[in-house]
Amino acid sequence: MSNSKVLFVLQNAWRRGASPGERDWDDETWELALWQCQTGKRLREYIPDGVAFKVINASRDVANNGKAVYSADLDHVTLAIYQYSPDVVVLLGVEAQRLRRELYDVRILSMAHPCWRELSKVVTAAYREDIDLAIATGAGCQVNWRRDRSPVP
Known about the structure:
With 153 residues, the chain is α/β, with parallel strands linked by helices. The chain contains 5 helices and 6 strands; from the N terminus they run E-E-H-H-E-E-H-E-H-E-H.
């Protein structure tokens, strides 16, 4: 499992003072902000031990408040999947999950966004186990095969 990789896809980044139309918050400062906020703290609970992971947003747009939601950008997420080559893609939240039928040839898990108010330690522990199982066996995952690459004739 030490070589396993997971790509987590959140909805979209936000920060106070973001300009309308702002895109591509610098990765380094965004990651620092992510791990200090409630989303990042809870997301850590999802991540199995010994797994490499990357976190991206479903949209490159940066909101100026936490309630703003931008549409998921299929090209952006597809490029991240291609570049990172994860064993499992975890779509977090409704907006990211809108992509679940449009991503191909990759194991997909859909889970609640880490800031969901009803999220508990029991649920995050179960998510962690689900991700572990998905990496090991593919259980619980959705996979959309392209017709030309489908294992089923």
